[in-house]
Amino acid sequence: MPGLYGPMITGDPDDRGLRGNLSLTTITDLLQFLAASAESGAIKILRLPENEEGMIYFGKGEVLSAKSPERCGLESFADMLNWKKGSFNFLPGITPPETDIGLSVQHAILEAIVLQENHTNRFTPHSAPKIEEGSTYMEQEPRESTAVMNDLLEISGIDAVVVVGRDGFVIESAGSSARVNIDELGASLAHAVNGIEEMGSELNVNQYQDMFIEYGRAVIMCKPVGDAIAAIVTPDASKLGIIRHKTKKLFQELGMSF
Amino acid sequence: MTVMRNDVVKALAKVTVQSNEQGLIPEYEVLVNLLPVSLLNTLAERLLAAAPERKTEIEAGLVRAAYECGYHTGCGIITSEIFSDVVMPMVTEEEKDILRGAYAAFTAWGWAKSGIVQLKEGQKLIIRAFDYYEADSKGDGLRAYMLQGLNQAFFELAYAAPYPDGMDTFVCKQTKGIEVGDAYGEFIVTGK
Question: If you placed Cys at B187, which of A159, A180, A251, B127 could pair as Cys (CB 3.0 to 4.6 Å)?
Answer without folding.
Answer: B127
